[in-house]
Amino acid sequence: MSxxxxxxxxxxxxxxxxxxxxxxxxxxxxxxxxxxxxxxVVKGVENIRxxxxxxxxEPPQFTVENLIVExxxxxxxxxxxxxAKNGSLEQYSFCDxxxxxxxxxxxxxxxxxxxxxxKEYQISKSAS
Length: 128
Prior knowledge:
45% strand
């Protein structure tokens, strides 16, 4: 089952990058809940369809760094780029947590953080 759930998550990401909402929704149970942490909670396939169609941006591009499956839970994290409303390319880090019932997604929790710049933390030794 682990390989099948990984395949489904990969199909979800492909559907988003190709702007194929219906392919994503076909992988979901009708009563799915999608929570974008700190932003939006959408319940049900029809409401998710409306939500996706209301987002005014180009389809995102994903680079998945890790895809882990344990039981009925899959976690994917990585980098994502999207073109904003003003035309600028914006970069994000993401982590999506999927909960499945069989081979259908029943819950998706998305953590998305915009990256403006990252600073590497270094400990410097002071002269004594």
